[in-house]
Amino acid sequence: MDELHLNVALLRARVPNLTVAARTAGLRPATVSNLCTGKIPVGKAEVRTLAMLADLAGCTMDELIIRGKPLEMLETGIKVLDLLAPVVKGGMVGLVARPGTGQMALLAELINRFRKKDFATIFWKPSEHTAGVDELLQESEDVCLTAEEIFGRIVHHAERRDVILGADRSMVLSGEMDDMKEKLKSLGVRPVTTLLVDVSGDAVDEEMPYGPLDTFLRFDTELTTRRLFPAIDPIVSTSVLLEGSQLEPQHLSIQQQARKLMRRYRELRPLVQFRGAAKLPETDQLLYLRGERLEAYLSQPFYIAEPYTKKKAEWIPFHEMLEDVRIILDGGADHVSIDELYFTGRLKV
């Protein structure tokens, strides 16, 4: 039977003052609190209690109750990822990009960052050698050529550490990835966070190049031509953590506002390029200005690029990043020049 969990993030987002609302509805606040913390298993809760909570949140029972283990965000310290397309711990992450837009660099950077956090990092080397593979060989703790090797290293590491696996799409298409994951699951090995790239560059033209994903990262050629890295498309890149409100209410709210702003900013960019910002209505001028600053803020120097760019990389703590984005959205950075925001860490206002 699937594990059952209360969708606490959704409940708190829909019912900000949950204790008062529960008491008003005739529920014991202590019972609701214990359900939220897991002290009372959802399976042992009264149906009446769950139905009343769903009614308070204005959602269905299916939305209120999560089947299986709750999803957990894996913080990367990379602003655009943690804000708009969070990595799911133990999930599948797919990087979709045209050649030369930075997918291999991002994979190498993620492996670098997770290795510093004491994750076991394994790279499943593809048969096809391409630009960026050498950096991955340097950054990864283990480099393997076969599914058997990968399986052995994962089993070895997973007893003590969480595992990050970098691999090419060919391992998914061949069925080797699924077979290996089934074997790991049968042994009760902790889930592996898998980062998938496509060294051939074919994935960008397919609707679902990797099959089901937990985090989808699409690279934007236009951002690359403007030298804005990581060149992650802020509109279409997404995560299953955004579905069903499985994020902190503050994160979900700021993420939604940021994506809405970036969508409008991108709609206005062609007009500004041809006619100038002064031709826009005053409201759109303000949105354009803030979108421009948010786009610049989301650029970020990488650790793996420090020898070449001479720019110091930083790990941007998640809640500090959210506060910076909130300030930009609220207009607190309207006076900051664009040049001050490109490839920086924290916002300085």
Describe the structure.
- This protein is α/β, with parallel strands linked by helices and 349 residues long.
- 45% of the residues lie in helices and 11% in strands.
- It has three domains: 4-67, Orthogonal Bundle (434 Repressor (Amino-terminal Domain)), CATH 1.10.260; 92-213, Cobalt-precorrin-4 Transmethylase, domain 1 (3-Layer(aba) Sandwich), CATH 3.40.1010; 249-340, Bovine Mitochondrial F1-atpase, Atp Synthase Beta Chain, Chain D, domain 3 (Bovine Mitochondrial F1-ATPase, ATP Synthase Beta Chain, Chain D, domain3).
- The strands form three sheets. It has a seven-stranded mixed β-sheet, with helices on both faces.
- Helix 7 (103-116) packs parallel to helix 8 (133-139) and helix 9 packs parallel to helix 11.
- It is globular, with a radius of gyration of 22 Å.
Query: Would you report the number of β strands?
Result: 11
Main beta-sheet annotation: 7 strands, mixed
Tally of separate helices: 16
Mean pLDDT: 90
Structural class given helices, strands, pairing?
alpha/beta
Q: Note the beta-strand portion.
A: 5-15%
Judging from the principal axes of the Cα atoms, what is the shape? globular
CATH architecture of the largest domain: 3-Layer(aba) Sandwich
Helix content: 40-55%
**How many domains comprise the coordinates?**
3
Please give the CATH class of the largest domain.
Answer: Alpha Beta
Strand order of the largest sheet: 7-6-8-9-5-10-11
Give helix and strand order, one letter per element, not per position: EHHHHHEEHEEHEHEHEHHEEHEHHHH
**Low-confidence runs of at least 5 consecutive residues:** none
CATH topology description of the largest domain: Cobalt-precorrin-4 Transmethylase, domain 1
Rg of Cα set: 22 Å
Distance between the termini: 52 Å
Pfam families: ATP-synt_ab, ATP-synt_VA_C
Keywords: ATP synthesis, ATP-binding, CF(1), Ion transport, Membrane, Nucleotide-binding, Translocase, Transport
Organism: Paenibacillus azoreducens
GO molecular function: ATP binding; proton-transporting ATP synthase activity, rotational mechanism
